[in-house]
Design brief:
single chain, 373 residues, 12 helices, 19% strand, binds iron/sulfur cluster
């Protein structure tokens, strides 16, 4: 239950955007902010790509993007779409035929910039294919590949140039009476991205796909994305996000979710609240949290778990969580259920015991949810 009515300092007022569909996933309007990732296998290796899509979906990805660089990839895309549990976005650069093939292959969305695919006739053909196959479009402006005339006009990639580029692509789609599109204005620089996104958010009511492009490795890219995307989301900007990391797509999904969870915009799985540990810890907090993170990956029900090393903060944190464990003395600690001290448990059995308690609580919450529907 949201308690934002009594805690107004937690409110985020989302920018009002039109809603479009990417397959069966709504983007924009009051739809939940969708989490995306992208495969990094060869698209022609259908088995490997499908396995990666499935792993990403299992981790919570609502949508997965796949590169379509050549005709063989368009053919593979058809099989990938058939096997995928989530809508597939086809990533197209420059080549209009790939766009048409991807729409025909069942892609739910094309990531394509209509201004970069050739003459008007070609643009119309791609738009027609998208329309005929219920395929939406994502315009993907990138600071690193801005059009020459804009670079000449502005001298370097800047927020104004990125917004202008986006609006030029939008105009082409609108002139063709195509409105099922969303837009991104990505840069690897957090300041440039944030300013460009604010500009485009004011200039259009299209849903916005957020991302900091080429953000970096797992740790540095996570931090950059959390700052860039986090600030924009906090301002209410963003309808779908992709965290770009030089890491496994599953990590991108996990980081995307954590950013949304931190802002209370999406809830999924166990939110573990744990202390950093210190000399007062009654058990090995770091090892325990590592073990629990792994053992609780299968839980999708939104719930909270506090794992706190000692009584300094343990009982207080446990008050606000579904399940809690606080280290005590003599090789055991206190288990809290629904905020109340429940029973003692020995440190050497507590990981198994907490997993059991969390699974039980998740089943209870699921049953309550089902009954309410
Ligand atoms: S809760 Fe206790 S063990 Fe954890 S960091 Fe604070 S004082 Fe240390």
């Amino acid at each position: 239950m949201s308690l934002n009515h009594v805690r107004p300092w937690r409110n985020i007022y989302r920018r009002k955007s039109r809603q479009i569909m990417v397959g069966d996933v709504p983007i924009g309007g009051d739809a939940p902010i969708a989490v995306q990732t992208m495969t990094n296998t060869l698209t022609t290796d259908v088995a490997a790509t499908v396995a990666q899509v499935q792993a990403a979906a299992e981790a919570g990805a609502d949508i997965v993007r796949v590169s379509v660089p050549d005709e063989a990839s368009s053919k593979a895309l058809k099989e990938i779409v058939r096997e995928s549990p989530v809508p597939i976005v086809a990533d197209i650069h420059f080549h209009y035929r790939r766009g048409i093939e991807a729409a025909e292959a069942g892609a739910a969305c094309l990531r394509i910039n209509p201004g970069n695919i050739g003459d008007e006739k070609r643009v119309k053909e791609v738009i027609k294919a998208a329309r005929d196959h219920n395929c939406s479009i994502r315009i993907g402006v990138n600071a690193g590949s801005l059009e020459k005339h804009l670079l000449e006009k502005y001298g370097e990639p800047c927020p104004e140039a990125m917004v202008e580029s986006g609006l030029e692509h939008i105009r082409i789609l609108q002139d063709n009476d195509f409105h099922e599109f969303k837009i991104s204005v990505k840069a690897s620089d957090v300041f440039l991205s944030a300013a460009a996104y604010q500009g485009i958010a004011e200039a259009t009511d299209a849903p916005i796909h957020l991302g900091i492009t080429e953000a970096g490795g797992l740790v540095s890219g996570t931090i950059k994305s959390a700052i860039g995307l986090g600030n924009l989301l906090w301002m209410g900007i963003g309808d779908t996000i992709r965290v770009s990391l030089s890491a496994d797509p599953v990590e991108e999904v996990k980081v995307g979710y954590e950013i949304l969870k931190s802002l209370g915009l999406r809830h999924r799985g166990v939110n573990i609240i744990s202390c950093p540990s210190c000399a007062r810890q009654g058990f090995d907090v770091i090892k325990t949290v590592e073990a629990l993170e792994q053992r609780l990956e299968h839980i999708k029900t939104p719930m909270s778990l506090s794992i706190i090393g000692c009584v300094v903060n343990g009982p207080g944190e446990a008050l606000m969580t579904d399940v809690g464990f606080t280290g005590g003395g003599a090789g055991s600690g206190m288990v809290y259920l629904a905020g109340k001290a429940s029973h003692k448990m020995s440190n050497d059995q507590m990981v198994d015991h907490i997993v059991e308690q969390v699974e039980k609580k998740a089943a209870e919450l699921d049953a309550t949810q089902e009954a309410a529907e």
